[in-house]
Amino acid sequence: MSTSIRYLLLGLLSLAIVVLDQVTKVYVMETMRLHESITVISDFFSITYIRNPGAAFGFLSSSSGTFRFVFFGLTSIFAVGLLGSILVRMPKHDWMGQLSVAAILGGAIGNLLDRLRYGEVIDFLDFYINGYHWPAFNVADSAITVGVVFLILHFAFEKHPDDAPVLQENRPS
Questions:
Q1: pTM higher than 0.85, yes or no?
Q2: Which of 1, 11, 85, 166 is least surrounded, with the fewest CB atoms within 10 Å of its CB?
Q3: Which structural domain range is residue 149 located in?
């Protein structure tokens, strides 16, 4: 497969994640009130509209809005640039790694767009067991998480040609 087609397909994956992320967020914002929750599976899953001014698990959410905007904006832009650089430097045959990085990149762009447009990230996927809630998240967060998990598994189980056992000749001593 040519390099341009490969990058086109990876770009389409990232774009599909961004579009799905943004469409779902807009739908939630237009059809729900802030903090409204719709139970989908009782005692397990709801759609709950929240806005997260911080990072994962509310990290830095109590910092000033200006600080968060600059910090998360610059961090996100750096991450997108780094991911793009990693993607183009990955070996051509490394499809699993490339797909993983493309998913992470799409998720990072989706959350960056929220930060640039709203100064915070829109979250709505709310999983819980009885009263114990996992922090709400969104499609972009899901793509980042799945991409990172697959990338870790890929690197953990990746075979290198020089990892093959070397047979030594039987030589008399």
A1: no
A2: 166
A3: 3-156
